[in-house]
Amino acid sequence: MTDPIHRPFAVITGGSNGIGLELARQFADHGYDLLIAAQDEQHLRDAALTLSAGGVQVDTYAADLGQAEGVDGLYRAIAGRPVDALCVNAGIGLGGPFVETDLATELQMIDLNVRGAVQLTKLVLKDMVARNSGKILFTSSISATMPDPFEAVYGGTKVFLRWFGEALRNELKDTGVTVTVLMPSMTETNFFHRADMDDTRAGQANKDDPAVVAKAGFDALMAGDDKVVPTFKNKVMGAIADALPDKVAAQVHRGLSEPGSGQ
User: What domains does the chain contain, in order, with CATH numbers?
Assistant: First the structure.
């Protein structure tokens, strides 16, 4: 990758659709060159065509970021260019009773949502700290404010990302590197369909615009905030969930995520 001009540079995983694509659009609109990564090459090509219309350079990297070699390849694709902003956004979900859900899919989820996130962060963060500059955004979820019946593994991965990000922020407080955690609620993406949750209340509910979610995340990242829950409604929901006894909060989530609850 060449750097013919000195535009800032952002790396976004899961950058070909949903919140990730809208995050990439925010950075492109603010003059950042981009490296977007995901697994589907065609989705990446389509996204790059759209994002580059404003004149910024958009590179793509297609791989399974749940695998160590995929993350290593993404880091090599950065090619030594200083990363001004890293958005650790790639992730998948799966709904249903834990005793019935597919173990292979859940292990893949852990690999992508957690292991891959840790690996990529380790690689990029070392470079950021060495030059005392950079910003990292983790896409967690409002699900990280409560136990998540019928999304038990997914919820666990988002709890991990929330507190991983908050812990790193504290570790880095005396450096020029900031860490922000994005905690969206239900968002209008293909997440619920892919997670086999079309028949749940959450799957059928009115959802937030991913562009609104991404703007909130971008603005918080640029401001150096510790975390952001997009929209006032969701801020209230998250605060209530944080305050409720865990078993009550779990029951609330069950009402949204239990199979058949949308009927």
Answer: 9-257 (3.40.50.720)
